[in-house]
Amino acid sequence: QHFAIPRHYSEDLSSILIPHGLIRDRVEKLAQLIAADCTKPLVACCVLKGAHVFFANLTDSLKKLPNKDGKSIPMSFEFIKVKSYENEHSTGSVKISLSEEDLQGFRGKDLLIVEDIVDTGATMVGLIDLLKKYEPASIKVVSLLLKKTPRSNRYIPDYVGFSIPDAFVVGYC
To answer: What distance in Å separates the CA atoms of residue 168 and residue 101, rounded to the nearest whole number?
Structure first.
């Protein structure tokens, strides 16, 4: 064993795909890329539950970085539960936990959707389509992981941490 595995996963994991330090370095680089593209206040939207640790580390890094104009990036946060599956099967539609009032508040704003993993891409495409109805100024997506799978609809997020093989993975812990 070359890496520390959390005790609660020790019986279930056969290997470490991406070491923690490499993840932290990549999160910092993603924050730099996002900050370099920022021109206006950002609404960072965490897709729950999986992305919460990635979201916390990414937004913490973003808070420390200047935007294109050398100024700090004004940010607000939203937390979205997204559901597109029932009993491991896609329903073909996306349901989210935000109220109509919350969604109306996205009008004219720059959204950054923070996701832990994009698998087939269907859920993210559905979420983006739903959010577009509320006329945000822009929608960008950052995902820590992009799974290379034949089931993919070929959706690629604006910012990707790592591409991974088509295998079951335990998230960023």
So the answer is: 36
